[in-house]
Design a protein that fits this description.
Length: 180
């Protein structure tokens, strides 16, 4: 028998809270005091996506508006596949899509962004397999040596506002947009 779902799509007893230290949403079970960054088993991913887009997207949340010498700021949209180093995300507890299926999916997102239908942060909020989805894919500032080499190599060649092509790393497939 399935557990009743709340408007968040989380199983009964679970709620979305916001971290005071990271200013990010996380999942909390009041009765057990269990907290986690990834959604618990039994979550309805579509319902959670809609809830997070309405209540925890980057709209209206201002990121740090200061430059850090030697560092850049990027947002990304990540599509994981079953060969990713950690094939799970806030959207899916077990990712089973093939590399080829992930490629087709991210190509669709790339097309929607290039066509002006959606921005990368808008799509990242609901479609990215990275927990940075909560912030529209914003990874904050980072420098050389902070990210996976393939990701960094692509990110550091971008000008502010520019988006990369599809970048493959051990984490999955990315679209990267340089913010600053």
């Amino acid at each position: 028998m399935s557990q009743p779902q709340l408007p968040t799509g989380l199983p009964e007893g679970w709620e979305v809270r916001r971290s005071n230290t990271k200013n990010l949403p996380y999942y909390f079970h009041a009765a057990t005091k269990d907290s986690r960054w990834e959604p618990p088993a039994g979550t309805d991913p579509e319902q959670l996506k809609a809830y997070m887009a309405d209540n925890h997207s980057s709209k209206g949340i201002s990121a740090a508006n200061f430059k850090v010498p030697g560092k850049i700021r990027c947002a990304h949209l990540l599509v994981k596949h079953r060969e990713s180093r950690r094939p799970a995300s806030w959207r899916e507890s077990k990712i089973t899509r093939s590399v080829q299926e992930a490629q087709v999916e991210i190509e669709g997102y790339e097309r929607r962004i290039k066509d002006g239908e959606k921005t990368l942060p808008e799509l990242a909020t609901t479609e990215s397999d990275c927990s940075s989805a909560r912030k529209g894919g914003d990874l904050g500032f980072f420098g050389q040596g902070d990210m996976q080499k393939e990701f960094e190599d692509a990110a550091f060649t971008l000008e502010p506002g520019q988006m990369s092509g599809i970048v493959s790393t051990a984490s999955g497939l990315h679209l990267i947009q340089r913010l600053e």
